[in-house]
User: What shape does this take?
Amino acid sequence: MKILIIEDETELANSITTYLSGENYVCELAQDFGQAIDKINLYQYDCILLDLMLPGGDGMQILEELKSQNKQDGVIIISAKNSLDDKIKGLQIGADDYLAKPFHLSELSARVFSVIRRKQFTNSNIVQQNEIEINILAKTVLVNDIPVILTKREYALLLYFIGNQNRVISKNALAEHLSGDIADMLDNHDFVYSHIKNLKKKLVDAGCTNYLKSVYGTGYKWEI
Amino acid sequence: MNRLLNKSLKPLVIYALIVLLLSIPAYYFIVDRIWANELDKHQYVLRDKIESRLAKLNLPDSTVEQTINIWNEIEPGFVLTPHATDSVIKDSVYSTIRFDEFLQDREQFRSLSTSVKINNKHYRLLIETNMEEADETVMAISLAAIFFFLLLLGGFIFLIKRLSVKIWHPFYVTLDVLKSFKLNSDQQVSFEPTAIQEFNELNDSLSKLLKRNTDSYKQQKEFTENVSHELQTPLAIVQSKLDLLTQHVALTDEQYALVESANTALTRVSRINKNLLLLARIENRQFVAHEQIDLSVLLEEMTDIFAEHLERKQLILEKRIQPAITIEANEVLIEVLINNLLINAIRHNSMEGQIIAELSQHELRVINTGSHPLEKEKLFRRFSTTSTVTPGSGLGLAIIKQICDLYQWQVSYNFTDNQHIFIISF
Assistant: This one.
């Protein structure tokens, strides 16, 4: 799957490329407004990561260009501005998600995963992984064709892990994913542990192989 | 405290009082001198008249003696006594106070004791004239002085009230402008030109001073926002590099722990930065969108979200939420406000403590168990509450205050019965 990274900070773009390439995405890079416009005119991407502040123009215009060409590329805005107005405007114009800098690469990867699965209108709204089947739109999970009832938090965690397979994910990143600023400010990520424990138990009870492993004491990894 | 106008009145009144008090003995002395002088003159004239008139009559000695005797009997104030010797005694003038048989009172007299020559015979003549007594004179002068003092006092008050109020009017106008001045409001300060040079200079200097203040305040606000913006990208780079490092296959447990420690610190920096940016945005009034918010529903929802964070400290959350309480505000800010209040109540709670979220018509209270009171004065200042025990961003309460200021709500803190109580009155 192809991803276009529109980001003028080379170092950040490199990190994103490195991380996402490991997830079997093909990444292309555009470092200014002109390059970005050229690329979106020429190619089709599954997902575009868009920085709003670019040399040569406003990222919002790229979004408008995509909209006017009726392109179906998924767009995730990655912005340093973290301004609500931009978020609302971006989502109104047609962005699929908005991620404020700084972010965890695992968070970005999980969002890319979701956006691509949501965008596809064939039956690939269904994520199949061995005995697990997740319907992204209906938000249901089947293990060996038997439904497993997950809470909102457990479902979010499962999707996060599937979107970051074979990656070490820190408890911090998971806490931030689940509770955003709250977890951030409470400096207490124990609640993550209980959600993970419950998720693991429900999956294993339904006859699923235990893919979720603890690593380095405080990290987690979804091993396939 | 004294008002300016009262200050200028007081010394004037005291001065007037001193002058008038000093005038009492002065007036007395002058009046007494004049009177004594006049009486003395008068008495010498009387003596001369007596002497010349008796001489003109050319009476024989026996008749003179008879006449003098009769005179001494009936004429008050004159005593003529024949001299023992022929030598002339010196005149003497004096005042005396003695009991007067006729008036039945102690009276003051001015006396002249002198010699007259009748038919070549020397007589001693004593003329006494009743004069006003000192105490009566002093009394009369004092009454006059008091009357004039009261007249001056009344006049001063009237004049100062009238004149000074008029003169100082521009000063009070300037004072009112300064009182209503707020550094964080965008309102321009302008002073009316006055007819008095000093006030114009004062207003000019104040205008310049205020402009410098508002300018630097504005710059500081913009600076905070710009810095926070600029920091986001390098923070994102560091974060991404740390994330990549954790994916390294050959990482030892120890190395992973090092990366995680760095990650935790980085999260804290990001949080401080985010909060600074939020503060700057609120200050720069970038949250313009207003809507009707059902605070009751919002508070219910948010307390539910927090439920999973209560477990570790085994906290009990009690809700006393009146239904259908609505406010007009920006929803994002209200969420931040409630968020920060609740986070605070969890962070600074004791084990198995309690949190009470109470919402009534015009008040939101968040109460939580605590061991010792916080410093009221410093509480809402930036970075004043950071401690090493519970390292927060140090901005949570500052943000609460800023949001309340924006909507002109009151936020207060109390500590009673081992409970921290935060009250927001809207």
